[in-house]
């Protein structure tokens, strides 16, 4: 969106006393047309005479109303003399600064509009140059008393200096000023820095220019060493940093260029080998010019035209013997950042003038001290991560003296008989301003009424005298009616042509100046559009008899339409017209029209797919001409737009690829020579597939991987004989935008093919193409303006789309026949993902009775590996279908950090469920549990599925899709992707061409205010603080929401998050707040209150939608109750708490309450709240990433820890010698437990070939009994070792209610396995079965064990511990106990439990905490 910083500098001296009201009114009108807000246009007004005075700065007001109010009250300053130079310097140093609100560093255009009514008494040159170097665009307006040359010198360019007889005439130039401003920002390159996404990997071109004169002989080794150290810090590679070194004295020598070396080692070798050049005198100016002309060039490796920052580091030991000014300015104009470093022999002022900014000039007393400034220079260089867009256009064409072709089209009808002499004189005066030569300006004059008549063509005369003689002899034509439309078409077809002297194809601007005295009797629209398509710039001038709207439609831009009451007043608009013409008269690259390349429209790759079948034989010439006219609108040169043409009937044939031609002329010549292909039938589907596979590819010139929008324009004249849907979907999935034009026989089909039905247009037959051409081009441009190219190497890493995607597939008996279709569907989905460790991750789980993980999110980091595994997927089979258990499994075992989930990093978590039947178990609780975790569930079912069940499971009902049979999955694939992209609008889509701008930031903000007796005096300041904060938010139902709660002994909600939807309502509510009063201060209870009553969906919280939840606490004293539990509870919920306290507050308490200690702020008194407002606002506004709750949002009371612990001991022959150590270990661990019926319970099982229970969990209820039994344990013996069977045994026979397990009561279930060898059977199924049951398994092995097997058995790989021998078990005892203790705090259910699953979260490298998700079948609560 357009953003500008606009400063008005007004002459308030004695000389403008009478005209100051007109100046003030002019500024008001200008501001009315700006979009004033903090994030759009900002305005400042300065008045000056002898010295300047700031009325307000760029950051003083953020609302247009406030600016206008201040302007209306502006009084003239008065005083003398007029010091314009000092005023210019003042705005440079004091207004165009970050502290005054300038966003120059963010790349926002900086505009200065000067109104001066007299000649300056001081010098304006230096401050004006200084402003221009800073990147400020200056527009000056003077009156008759001003010095026009002075204003031209001050202005960005002379044509931007405007003049009025008196400031009362300012309205007459207002439109011209706006046109000039828009010309600079639309047609011209940006002179401001262009901010690139933060995540783009930095690239720099760095040139070192070293003084090698006689004076630096002793200091040269230090200079060399300095360059080496700098290079050491750079990241040298062909696509990263490039380095060049040049040495100079009297003349220059390039040791190596930017493209000479591509590795750091080569550069360092080159630097080490440098020899001092010697020589005198020192010509720094010539050296600067040399690097500009010979080093900062594409042929020498400079990537300036790609927007890569260009950096010059100059080390100079003396004053230059030649002038440095011109060369330094030339480098700055090119956008090169020069850093100058000098020694005591240098001229510090000279270095400052050379440097891009005076602050970039550094000084050392001797070059041996260069290390002292190295870090400073390096920091400056490294901060240049924002490519500087050169101030000259980044085109490869050499600039020539402006040339233009100008056609005057004069109304010669009866209605202009009296005013024709004035029209003729006007033409003469305008022509006198031109430079008419064969290779400069050319002029033609046409007169019209009913029909048009050419007086002379563009190539008729080559001297100004001949043209003027012919103009003076013009006679009024006469006639009626007035056919302006026909005349416009006539000049298009007969005057703007190469044969009559038009140089349009050479890139010379084509200008039409229409003088019309009446309304046209025919339509002007088609002809006007046709001229615009050709790139002709039309300026319309009318009198009172004209139709002003008609003139605006005819003009290239409505602002190019000018009106006078009578043609005798034409001299009043002559300067305005000339300035506008001059502004557009700088040609771009030859062979492309200057004016059709709209910088607002991104570069693009465009493929035309043309129906060349027998059915289009007669209309093919119209198709060919349509392609020509569309291509005319493109900007082919400078590596912007690329074009390909493909023709098809039965099969497709490429006429040329995207990289075949590099100029518009070559493309147009080839298009003109296209021959109709012929053939039948018409296979549009195959043609679509062909362009996808053979044309939209890198080898054929497609830049899709670079993020360039990919456009397909289909012209189809008949119905396809093959299937189009699959191939059209494939193109759309790959990010290609399809536009189509169909005839009466093909229009519906073309709509299905197009990216959007609105992108398809319909005509009777192709001969009607001209009637939709302009509409088509407009539609194309409208879409392209919205397109946000997402270049993978440019987008910030944090903004790059990242997703964790889990596919959960029904592998039960009911899907046996359709499983191949499910597998193919998953393959196609994965094909569209960007699989890598730092982008998309994929996991696949299959289930029937129980689930089975084929691979986890961190198993594969390459798409090929995922696809290979998918292709080998076999159906699992089994019954019944337990979808609920499968959902719980993926929640507990797949969406975890240990399995590769990046939930804690804020990466979106997606579950795609394909289910072919109704679940045999309950799905509600696990589905809710996944949603609370922040997982987005998309479900697809077949005719056998329960659609309501799928809707309940899905993130929202509309995300549940249905097909008759899984063989029909391709029909919903695109819809699924659309749903996914709809949810993740905030991140870029996985296709490179994204139309959606991106989801705008949303926040839920709750203010919790201390309303106790102690804050009575400070409460007004608190209210005002809240008001100011709200002013900065963007309040709307779908943007920011606000709630205010006040508390003392108890809390009171003044309004909730969903009470008000407009900023005005909220501000009214805040203004009406009354201090609550009361004591004592219960902050803990208030925090708990907002958690339980405000941050809830019913009160408007959008936490479950991922919207950031922010709590701002203002507290004036220490709490009388504990804040710990409530603060922790808020943090667990993911709420970001900011605490602000006064001198009466407890700063440590505030830090504990705040989400992060750094979020706690302090003021001595609440009247000082404005001092921390910006800091708080910056923190709040930076919270644009939804915070995923770190723990499940389950309300649970905590009770004294209880646990059921089972020891499973390897009693095989291999552990005979170490069994006593195992037995001692069990004793020591049990001694740490609290064994009672309602506290800890213990069981011991020993196994080898089979398992044997020594005692169950309910066998003993005292620690003494358990220890006695453990001490008496005897080694079992036997072989082989069947660990898998033993695990299954304890699952089925020990972790059961009948044997004392309290799993159904939510008591943690812990299994401690001690195994001394590798199992002879598989452990995977049994281990998974235990995990599904919620059992936390810790595996301890010795050197004979298989460590990987132990990790698979353990609930989490971190729970597997190894010792070299079991005699070393005491060394890991504390580690095990700490881990067990960490997971032993259960969440107590609030209703009877069906299943309890324990989810472990990593606390340290080994410690994990467990939260038990319990589903209860009734409402009764347990009393603790």
Which value, in Å, is the CA radius of gyration?
A: 39 Å
Distance between the termini: 59 Å
* Overall mean pLDDT: 85
Based on CA inertia axes, which overall geometry fits?
A: globular
Q: How large a portion of the residues is in β-strands, by DSSP E? A: 15-25%
Count the helices. How many?
42
Which segments are poorly predicted (pLDDT under 50) over 5 or more consecutive residues? 186-200, 385-400, 587-600, 788-800, 985-999, 1184-1200, 1386-1424
Total beta-strand segments? 48
* Assembly level: single chain
Kindly report the spatial arrangement of strands forming the biggest sheet. Answer: 3-2-1-4-5-6
Instruction: Report the major sheet.
Output: 6 strands, mixed
Short description:
The protein is α/β, with parallel strands linked by helices.
How would you describe this structure to a colleague?
- The chain is of the alpha/beta class and 1424 residues long.
- The longest helix is centred in the middle third of the chain and has 18 residues, at 769-786.
- It is globular.
- The protein has 42 helices and 48 strands.
Task: Please outline the helices and strands.
Blueprint: E1 5-11, H1 20-32, E2 42-48, E3 52-56, H2 64-72, H3 84-94, E4 110-116, H4 125-134, E5 136-142, H5 148-154, E6 161-163, H6 171-186, E7 204-211, H7 220-233, E8 241-248, E9 252-256, H8 264-272, H9 284-294, E10 310-316, H10 325-333, E11 336-342, H11 348-354, E12 361-363, H12 371-382, E13 405-411, H13 420-432, E14 442-448, E15 452-456, H14 464-472, H15 484-494, E16 510-516, H16 525-534, E17 536-542, H17 548-554, E18 561-563, H18 571-583, E19 605-611, H19 620-632, E20 642-648, E21 652-656, H20 664-672, H21 684-694, E22 710-716, H22 725-733, E23 736-742, H23 747-753, E24 760-762, H24 769-786, E25 788-789, E26 803-810, H25 819-832, E27 840-847, E28 851-855, H26 863-871, H27 883-893, E29 909-915, H28 924-933, E30 935-941, H29 947-953, E31 960-962, H30 970-983, E32 993-994, E33 1003-1010, H31 1019-1032, E34 1040-1047, E35 1051-1055, H32 1063-1071, H33 1083-1093, E36 1109-1115, H34 1124-1132, E37 1136-1141, H35 1147-1153, E38 1160-1162, H36 1170-1181, E39 1197-1198, E40 1204-1210, H37 1219-1231, E41 1241-1247, E42 1251-1255, H38 1263-1271, ...
Parallel strand pairs: 1-2, 1-4, 4-5, 5-6, 7-8, 7-10, 10-11, 11-12, 13-14, 13-16, 16-17, 17-18, 19-20, 19-22, 22-23, 23-24, 26-27, 26-29, 29-30, 30-31, 33-34, 33-36, 36-37, 37-38, 40-41, 40-43, 43-44, 44-45
Antiparallel strand pairs: 2-3, 8-9, 14-15, 20-21, 25-32, 27-28, 34-35, 39-46, 41-42, 47-48
Helix pairs in contact: 1-2, 3-4, 6-18, 7-8, 9-10, 13-14, 15-16, 19-20, 19-24, 21-22, 22-30, 25-26, 27-28, 31-32, 33-34, 37-38, 39-40
């Amino acid at each position: 969106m357009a953003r500008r910083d606009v400063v008005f500098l007004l002459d308030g001296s004695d000389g403008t006393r009478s005209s100051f009201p007109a100046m003030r009114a002019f500024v008001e009108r200008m501001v009315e047309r700006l979009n004033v807000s903090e994030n759009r246009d900002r305005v400042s007004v300065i008045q000056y005479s002898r010295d300047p005075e700031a009325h307000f700065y760029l950051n003083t007001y953020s609302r247009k109303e406030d600016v206008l109010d201040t302007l209306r009250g502006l009084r003239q300053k008065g005083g003398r003399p007029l010091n314009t130079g000092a005023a210019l310097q003042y705005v440079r140093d004091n207004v165009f600064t970050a502290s005054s609100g300038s966003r120059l560093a963010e790349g926002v255009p900086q505009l200065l509009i000067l109104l001066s009514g007299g000649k300056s008494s001081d010098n304006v040159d230096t401050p004006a140059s200084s402003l221009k170097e800073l990147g400020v665009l200056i527009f000056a307006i003077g009156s008759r008393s001003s010095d026009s040359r002075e204003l031209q010198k001050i202005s960005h360019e002379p044509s931007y200096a405007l003049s009025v007889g008196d400031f009362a005439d300012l309205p007459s130039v207002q439109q011209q000023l706006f046109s000039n401003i828009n010309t600079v920002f639309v047609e011209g390159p940006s002179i401001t820095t262009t901010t690139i996404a933060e995540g783009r990997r930095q690239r720099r071109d760095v040139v070192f220019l070293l003084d090698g004169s006689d004076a630096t002989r002793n200091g040269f080794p230090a200079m060399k060493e300095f360059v080496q150290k700098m290079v050491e810090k750079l990241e040298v590679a062909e696509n990263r940093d490039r380095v060049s070194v040049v040495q100079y004295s009297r003349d220059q020598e390039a040791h190596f260029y930017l493209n000479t070396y591509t590795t750091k080692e080569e550069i360092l070798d080159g630097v080490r080998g440098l020899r001092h050049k010697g020589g005198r005198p020192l010509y720094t100016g010539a050296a600067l010019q040399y690097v500009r002309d010979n080093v900062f060039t594409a042929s020498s490796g400079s990537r300036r035209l790609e927007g890569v920052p260009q950096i010059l580091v100059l080390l100079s030991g003396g004053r230059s013997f030649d002038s440095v000014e011109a060369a330094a300015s030339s480098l700055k104009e090119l956008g090169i950042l020069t850093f100058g470093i000098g020694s005591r022999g240098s001229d510090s002022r000279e270095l400052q003038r050379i440097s891009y900014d005076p602050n970039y000039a550094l000084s050392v007393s001797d070059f041996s001290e260069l290390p002292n400034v190295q870090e400073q220079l390096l920091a400056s260089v490294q901060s240049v991560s924002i490519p500087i867009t050169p101030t000259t256009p980044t085109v490869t064409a050499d600039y020539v003296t402006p040339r233009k072709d100008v056609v005057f089209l004069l109304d010669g009808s009866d209605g202009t008989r009296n005013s024709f002499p004035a029209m003729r004189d006007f033409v003469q005066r305008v022509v006198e301003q031109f430079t008419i030569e064969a290779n400069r300006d050319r002029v033609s004059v046409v007169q019209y009424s009913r029909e048009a008549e050419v007086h002379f063509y563009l190539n008729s005369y080559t001297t100004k005298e001949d043209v003027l003689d012919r103009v003076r002899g013009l006679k009024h034509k006469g006639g009626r009616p007035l056919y302006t439309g026909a005349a416009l078409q006539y000049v298009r077809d007969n005057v703007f042509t190469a044969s009559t002297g038009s140089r349009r194809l050479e890139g010379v601007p084509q200008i039409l100046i229409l003088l019309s005295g009446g309304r046209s009797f025919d339509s002007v629209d088609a002809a006007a559009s046709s001229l615009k398509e050709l790139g002709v710039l039309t300026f319309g001038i009318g009198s009172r008899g004209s139709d002003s709207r008609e003139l605006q439609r005819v003009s290239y831009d409505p602002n190019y339409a000018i009106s006078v009451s009578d043609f005798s007043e034409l001299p009043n608009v002559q300067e305005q017209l000339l300035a506008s013409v001059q502004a557009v008269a700088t040609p771009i690259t030859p062979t492309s029209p200057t004016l059709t390349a709209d910088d607002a429209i991104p570069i693009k790759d465009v493929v035309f797919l043309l129906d060349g079948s027998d059915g289009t034989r007669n209309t093919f010439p119209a198709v060919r001409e349509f392609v020509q006219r569309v291509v005319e609108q493109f900007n082919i040169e400078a590596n912007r737009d690329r074009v390909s043409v493909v023709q098809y009937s039965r099969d497709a044939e490429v006429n040329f690829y995207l990289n075949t031609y590099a100029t518009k002329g070559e493309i147009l010549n080839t298009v003109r020579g296209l021959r109709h292909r012929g053939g039948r039938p018409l296979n549009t589907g195959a043609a679509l597939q062909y362009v996808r596979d053979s044309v939209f590819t890198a080898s054929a010139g497609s830049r899709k991987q670079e993020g360039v929008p990919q456009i397909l324009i289909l012209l189809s004249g008949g119905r396809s004989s093959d299937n189009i849907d699959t191939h059209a979907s494939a193109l759309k999935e790959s990010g290609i935008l399809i536009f189509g034009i169909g005839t009466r026989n093909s229009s519906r089909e073309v709509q299905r093919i197009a990216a959007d039905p609105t992108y398809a247009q319909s005509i009777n037959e192709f001969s009607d193409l001209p009637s939709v051409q302009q509409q088509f081009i407009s539609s194309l441009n409208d879409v392209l303006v919205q397109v946000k190219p997402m270049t993978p190497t440019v987008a910030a890493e944090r903004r790059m789309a990242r997703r964790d995607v889990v596919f959960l597939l029904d592998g039960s008996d009911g899907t046996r026949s359709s499983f191949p279709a499910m597998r193919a569907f998953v393959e196609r989905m994965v094909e569209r993902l960007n699989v890598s460790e730092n982008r998309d991750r994929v996991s696949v789980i299959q289930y029937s009775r129980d689930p089975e993980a084929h691979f986890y999110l961190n198993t594969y980091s390459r798409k090929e590996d995922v696809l290979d595994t998918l292709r080998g997927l076999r159906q699992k089979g089994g019954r019944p279908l337990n979808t609920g258990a499968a959902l719980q499994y993926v929640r507990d075992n797949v969406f975890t950090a240990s399995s590769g989930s990046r939930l804690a990093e804020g990466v979106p978590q997606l579950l795609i469920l394909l289910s072919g039947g109704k679940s045999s178990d309950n799905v509600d609780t696990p589905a809710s549990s996944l949603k609370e975790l922040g997982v987005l569930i998309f479900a697809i079912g077949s005719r056998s599925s329960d659609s309501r069940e799928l809707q309940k499971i899905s993130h929202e009902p509309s995300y549940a899709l249905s097909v008759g049979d899984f063989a029909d999955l391709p029909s919903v694939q695109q819809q699924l992707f659309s749903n996914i992209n709809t949810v993740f609008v905030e991140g870029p889509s996985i296709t490179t061409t994204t139309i959606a701008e991106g989801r705008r930031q949303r926040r839920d903000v709750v203010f919790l205010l201390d309303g106790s007796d102690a804050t009575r005096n400070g409460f007004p300041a608190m209210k005002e603080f809240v008001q100011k904060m709200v002013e900065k938010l963007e309040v709307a139902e779908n943007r920011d929401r606000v709630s205010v709660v006040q508390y003392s002994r108890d809390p009171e909600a003044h309004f909730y998050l969903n009470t008000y939807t407009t900023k005005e309502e909220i501000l009214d509510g805040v203004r009406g707040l009354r201090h609550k009063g009361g004591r004592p201060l219960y902050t803990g209870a208030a925090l708990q209150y907002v958690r339980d009553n405000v941050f809830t969906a019913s009160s408007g919280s959008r936490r479950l939608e991922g919207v950031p939840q922010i709590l701002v606490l203002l507290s004036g004293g220490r709490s009388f109750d504990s804040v710990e539990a409530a603060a922790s509870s808020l943090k667990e919920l993911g709420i970001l708490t900011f605490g602000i306290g006064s001198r009466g507050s407890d700063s440590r308490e505030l830090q504990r309450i705040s989400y992060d200690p750094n979020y706690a702020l302090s003021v001595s008194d609440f009247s000082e709240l404005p001092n921390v407002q910006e800091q708080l606002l910056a923190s709040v506004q930076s919270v644009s990433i939804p915070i995923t709750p770190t723990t499940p949002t389950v309300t649970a009371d905590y009770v004294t820890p209880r646990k059921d612990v089972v020891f499973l001991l390897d009693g095989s022959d291999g552990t005979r010698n170490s069994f006593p150590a195992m037995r001692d270990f069990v004793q020591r661990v049990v001694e740490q437990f609290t064994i009672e019926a309602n506290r800890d319970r213990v069981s011991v099982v020993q196994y080898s070939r089979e398992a044997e229970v020594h005692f169950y969990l309910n066998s003993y209820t005292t620690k003494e009994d358990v220890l006695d039994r453990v001490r008496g344990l005897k080694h079992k013996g036997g072989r082989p070792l069947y660990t898998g069977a033993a695990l299954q045994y304890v699952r089925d026979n020990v972790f059961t209610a009948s044997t004392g397990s309290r799993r159904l009561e939510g008591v943690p279930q812990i299994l401690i396995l001690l195994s001394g060898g590798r199992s002879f059977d598989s452990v995977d199924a049994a281990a998974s079965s235990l995990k599904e049951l919620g059992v936390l398994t810790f595996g301890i092995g010795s050197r004979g064990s298989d460590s990987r097997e132990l990790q698979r058995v353990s609930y989490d790989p971190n729970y597997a511990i190894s010792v070299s021998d079991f005699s070393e078990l005491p060394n890991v005892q504390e580690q095990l106990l700490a881990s067990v203790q960490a997971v032993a705090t259960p969440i107590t259910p609030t209703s009877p439990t069906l299943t309890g699953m324990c989810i472990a979260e990593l606390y340290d490298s080994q410690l994990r905490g467990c939260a038990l998700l319990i589903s209860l079948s009734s409402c009764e609560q347990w009393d603790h």
